[in-house]
């Protein structure tokens, strides 16, 4: 193939291409989100609507039905479920796998804005993209630094109003769940004697206070050519505002709430208590967005928590205790898989060395492993996948297959080289001759794993990383085998002196030599008679005839049946010549 000759003639270009593959692979590795396993859940958005004091049937008929009527037209909506409870309702929207969660959130918010009217006291719907079944990745606890630890239950409202926003602003955090404590509430304490004296009932007090504690539209006011919308803001801002509500007015006598009651800031009844080491506290659970980098979220939340403990919370005698996060478990799991990948690569190189019996040939072939493995992260990055134990397992599975194409190309090049061809012709002819074979071999492997990418639902999400990792690494190994391997062989053996089979004679036996480099003085002394008796040496050669190659001992004449020379043929083959006794 022409591009094979181009690769051989342009080694610098091939080197730059390989460097770019490794460089972008490392960039993709740093950009990949890190988590324990792939996201197998469908994108979900939850809508919470709170209506204090309402029954499930009231919420369903007056709130949920109105919302569902608008939400059912959302694009790529797969399933919509709703549940109504006392005081609140929840709608769960499930979208297709390819739906962008941020875009879906925007569309859901726009649809909810189309619901024009809600009953009185219905709070604005709250949206969450964390998913109902997703588990928290961080557990925190708000506790007192000193003093009575039971006082922490009174700081739930303070946390929700002043502290929670700092953690929720961290990129990748979907929502927070707060357990324990009691929320603040405005309490009106009635005096029964004063109510009886003024002939005012509890129902009248409730009606008057409820009517006063809401903003009311007063219509529009036209001035010149402009219209102004007028709205009265009468919601209570502090605990003293309710005392100015008029309970009775007949034109002669006016009775205020302060005449029959008092107000104060109290706390809701506590039904749940959260304990840690026997100390009561508020527990905060942090849930991540789908596809977010778990390790990055944990690091960013830790920075925010440290800043809160240093700058904000000390003035309230509070601190946030870091109880648990998933980082150690994820890092340990990924580290184990990385070690397995490394061990697999080393074992593959060792096996290559045992069969090729040449350091240069083994090194040339082994180049396919790191280049293909690192280049795989480019495809994982482009396909918006993440780094997890499944994707790393796919790379681990492919390690043994990454050198298959390179071995085929290398062996065929070596065969042409031993025919006495110049190294350039041997490399070009050898790689071109098996090009179709290695392409066919690669495509058969790709045909097995590539269809997994198109599987939908949870199974496709789980195994897609393996399919992408194996397919990408095998395709890169094909490119390496027909570009890098011929180029490296040409450079390594360009100046080597090779004997052809015609020059070597017909009675010579050919073998692969593991210890055959020229001037390998470390083993030259091994055949000296002074190291062992001649009889032992003869028996050794009879047990291992022609398989254990010992460098020639300089200045000595071998006996019959003993190896005379160990010629180094391009680092890949050695010739044993059995001489005769003089």
Give an overview in words.
The structure is a single chain. The protein is of the alpha+beta class and 582 residues long. Helices cover 45% and strands 18% of the residues. It contains 18 helices and 19 strands. A four-stranded antiparallel beta sheet has the order 2-3-1-4, covered by helices on one side. A four-stranded antiparallel beta sheet has the order 6-15-5-16, covered by helices on one side. A three-stranded antiparallel beta sheet has the order 17-19-18, with no helix packed on it. A hairpin with a 7-residue loop joins β18 and β19 (574-578). α1 (2-9) packs across α16, α11 (368-382) runs antiparallel to α16 (457-493) and α15 packs antiparallel against α16. It is elongated and about 125 Å long. The chain starts with a helix and ends with a strand. 30% of the residues are buried. Residues 498-582 have low confidence and may be disordered.
